[in-house]
Amino acid sequence: MPKRPKTSLGSGFALGVSGYNSVKLRSISSEMDSMRAMQSETSGQIQHSTKLTLNAIKSVADLQIATLGGLVTLDDKLESLSSIAWDVKGYLERKESERKFIGDLKMIVIGIEDEVERILEFSEEYPEYAILQLKDLQTMIKDHDVRVEHFSSHCSIGDIKWAKQVLGSVDIAYLGLNNNLGD
Question: H or E stretch including 155?
């Protein structure tokens, strides 16, 4: 067999390499086209996601504005309610103080009533001492401003009449003993 010229072997090799390179280039070109398509699709998805995110951020911003408006309104209402609650608390405390004052005043009048009865018990034997005790009792009543008018709130008419009768009994007993002593 005759020998092939060297150029034909080199040409065949070059042709094979050239064909292989062409196949590889088409494969790489196809992969590049595929990557470009994926990149384009990914870019579209990123743009879509960005639009959704921006819309969500706008919605959150709108929600925050609405929430802040609601919170300001709620704060104003709570401030008003708090003010009313303090007023009511003050009113209730004043009413409770008045009730306590009236209760204490009733106890004082009971004490006065008991003291007048005790003074009247020994007034026959010791009228001068009884007059002195009644005078001291009148002074204490005046100094501590014990008056029937204090019973006008939170008291029944019966309580008011009772307080008037007890406070008046001090003056009546004093005048009665003074008149008896003067006779």
Answer: none
